[in-house]
């Protein structure tokens, strides 16, 4: 049976350490770190996620700002609001929750966030820093994956990492972070031929596709560490919603070296990295070593 990589427990440890750090820092500077989360529209999954972030901020002593705006909010109003947050000295991190309603231009909005407050690591400056191997704010989900792998001593250097998915939010930065850690990296996607042949070679298999049961028993090997980044809400026979990843967990767990569950895997790690990025950004602003 595979080892379970417990993202939830690790995220709790990280939050506990951050709470201590925030307490000390706040006493020293006279103001807590601040995070602004902007949510536009009423996507129910986003609403849960945003609520989790506010709760986590409360727990560790980060002040949360930000707004829940109607789906009809015009682009210019959002741009003005982001500008205001860019200039707000209480705010160290700004996160624009995705997806946005159709009529809004997400790229322009994301690019208007000040790079040193871009705790999502999605601004071209921060993406460029990652690409070039320079320090900078890193995207939370792939940073969470790296942190989990490192904590559980999963070997990365020289190993074959296969990343399924090439999104800006996960797949691309994930591949770059694994590369920076000296993995041999393959990015597979919807046009990849013979996906099974590719995934079977993986020492580390990261799936960020958003398709339940995409990864089946025949696609892994006994040495594989499976990192399931998929967050899919599926209908349960009893009518209640249930959260599953991209991996057929029951079938794959007995066959691999290690695996992350959903829920309780990378999701909570993402939130922990967001809080960590906020504290890092705050420390930079005060010229304190984080
Ligand atoms: N600008 C932006 N940055 C993001 O990082 C971002 C985003 N937009 N939009 C949506 C995705 C998705 N995402 C999740 C993070 C944590 C959980 C999480 O904590 N999940 C819990 C369960 C939560 C539940 O029960 O619903 C778990 O997996 O155990 C889920 C999803 C961040 N995203």
Automatic annotation (TrEMBL):
Binding-site positions, NADP(+): 165-167, 231
GO biological process terms held by the UniProt record: L-histidine biosynthetic process; methionine biosynthetic process; purine nucleotide biosynthetic process; tetrahydrofolate interconversion
GO cellular component terms, A-Z: cytosol
CDD domains assigned to the protein according to its UniProt record, in alphabetical order: NAD_bind_m-THF_DH_Cyclohyd (cd01080)
Keywords: Amino-acid biosynthesis, Histidine biosynthesis, Hydrolase, Methionine biosynthesis, Multifunctional enzyme, NADP, One-carbon metabolism, Oxidoreductase, Purine biosynthesis
Origin: domain of life: Bacteria
Short name of one Pfam family: THF_DHG_CYH_C
InterPro entries xref list: Aminoacid_DH-like_N_sf (IPR046346), NAD(P)-bd_dom_sf (IPR036291), THF_DH/CycHdrlase (IPR000672), THF_DH/CycHdrlase_cat_dom (IPR020630), THF_DH/CycHdrlase_CS (IPR020867), THF_DH/CycHdrlase_NAD-bd_dom (IPR020631)
Catalytic activity of the protein: (6R)-5,10-methylene-5,6,7,8-tetrahydrofolate + NADP(+) = (6R)-5,10-methenyltetrahydrofolate + NADPH; (6R)-5,10-methenyltetrahydrofolate + H2O = (6R)-10-formyltetrahydrofolate + H(+)
An annotated Gene Ontology molecular function: methenyltetrahydrofolate cyclohydrolase activity
EC number: 1.5.1.5, 3.5.4.9
Domain Tetrahydrofolate dehydrogenase/cyclohydrolase catalytic: 5-120
Signal peptide positions (record): none
Pathway the protein takes part in: One-carbon metabolism; tetrahydrofolate interconversion
UniProt-listed SUPFAM superfamilies: Aminoacid dehydrogenase-like, N-terminal domain, NAD(P)-binding Rossmann-fold domains
Residue ranges constituting the Tetrahydrofolate dehydrogenase/cyclohydrolase NAD(P)-binding domain according to the UniProt record: 139-284
Family to which the UniProt record says this protein belongs: Belongs to the tetrahydrofolate dehydrogenase/cyclohydrolase family.
HAMAP family noted in UniProt: THF_DHG_CYH
Subunit architecture: Homodimer.
Function in brief: Catalyzes the oxidation of 5,10-methylenetetrahydrofolate to 5,10-methenyltetrahydrofolate and then the hydrolysis of 5,10-methenyltetrahydrofolate to 10-formyltetrahydrofolate.
Name the record gives this protein: Bifunctional protein FolD
Native organism: Halomicronema hongdechloris C2206
